[in-house]
Iron sulfur cluster assembly protein 1 (Metchnikovella dogieli), 144 residues
Amino acid sequence: MDVIGKKTVGDGFEKAGQLYHKNVFDHYQNPRNVGSFETEENVGTGLVGAPACGDVMKLQIKVDPNKNRIEDARFKTFGCGSAIASSSFATELLKGKTLEDAVKIKNTQIAGELRLPPVKLHCSVLAEEAIKEAIKDYHSKMGK
């Protein structure tokens, strides 16, 4: 059984009475694609926040303008483990996708893969919003 934390419960770990799946823990403990890109024309940045919980998420995409495809993605998130995990997973989802496919990514896909508990679904919503804002920023730089 792959269980992490102070209490064995299914496929997750418990922190402060809240059950988290091992997928959340993995992306929180070993976040992928942390960092920022230099300011370039082919980089789109999405900066979003949730005033209710204080989470702030910056997600960037680097786009190959000839193929309209995301070459790379980075993030910096100030927030809870679920927000960090959502950002990390979102950057993994984005790599290699066309902008048309990337804009279709929904929070339910992120939440489903990470198995976020209902009280943490807003973290996946932030990730979806950050993706859309990054794409919007890229389009505005390219005059679209």
User: Anything to note?
Assistant: The beta strands are 12-15, 18-21, 43-50, 55-64, 69-78. Residues 1-14 have pLDDT under 50 and may be disordered. The chain has one domain: 12-141. The chain is about 40% helix and 25% strand.
